[in-house]
User: Which sequence fits this backbone?
C-alpha cells in the first residue's frame, strides 16, 4: 500500500525537504528528511515519474500547431496514431504578412533528406516554397498573421516523420517530428 504513494508524493516530499532546509526551527525536520530519502530511492527504480511532460503531447490525431511572428512553431514533437487520418490545423497567431513572415507546415516522408528538401523549397517561390517533391506527405498553405490552414493525411506506417516550415530561412528553427505509433 505504501508504494502507491511514492510517485505522487515526490513533489510534496521535495517541497517538505526544501521547507525543512529553510526552517531550522522545525523540530521534526530530520524525521521528514529520512522518509523523503527512502521514498525517492524507491521511486527512482520503479518509474520515471519525474520526467517532464510539458512538451510531450498526448497521442492525438487532431492537432493544432501555432506559428508566430518570432518564427516559431509552438511544438516540436507530435504523437499520432499510425494508419488513422490526422487532422492538422496550422495557425499563424502573429500579425505579419505572409510575404515577410509566412509559414507553412510540410510533413515529409520518413527518412527524407530534410536539408536537400529545404534547398529545393527555396527555389519554389512560385508555388509558395512548396516544391514538386515525392518527399512530401502533406502540406498546409503558406499563411500570414491571423490566418490558418487545415490539412488531413494518414501516416500509414509507424515511424518518425519530419515536419518543417519551408519559408526561406525558417526550416532551421521551424521544424519538428511527428511520431506515428
Ligand atoms: Cu515559417
Assistant:
Amino acid at each position: 500500500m505504501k508504494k502507491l504513494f511514492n510517485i505522487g508524493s515526490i513533489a510534496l516530499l521535495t517541497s517538505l525537504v526544501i521547507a525543512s532546509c529553510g526552517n531550522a526551527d522545525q523540530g521534526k525536520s530530520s524525521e521528514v528528511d529520512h522518509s523523503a530519502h527512502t521514498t525517492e530511492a524507491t521511486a527512482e527504480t520503479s518509474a520515471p515519474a519525474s520526467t517532464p511532460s510539458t512538451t510531450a503531447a498526448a497521442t492525438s490525431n487532431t492537432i493544432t500547431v501555432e506559428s508566430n511572428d518570432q518564427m516559431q512553431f509552438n511544438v516540436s514533437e507530435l504523437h499520432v496514431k499510425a494508419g488513422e487520418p490526422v487532422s492538422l490545423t496550422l495557425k499563424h497567431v502573429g500579425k505579419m504578412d505572409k510575404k515577410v513572415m509566412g509559414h507553412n507546415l510540410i510533413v515529409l516522408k520518413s527518412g527524407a533528406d530534410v536539408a536537400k528538401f529545404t534547398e529545393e523549397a527555396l527555389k519554389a517561390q512560385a508555388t509558395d516554397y512548396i516544391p514538386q517533391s515525392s518527399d512530401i506527405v502533406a502540406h498546409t498553405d503558406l499563411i500570414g498573421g491571423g490566418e490558418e490552414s487545415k490539412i488531413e493525411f494518414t501516416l500509414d506506417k509507424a515511424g518518425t516523420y519530419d515536419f518543417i516550415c519551408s519559408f526561406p530561412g525558417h526550416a532551421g528553427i521551424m521544424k519538428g517530428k511527428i511520431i506515428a505509433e
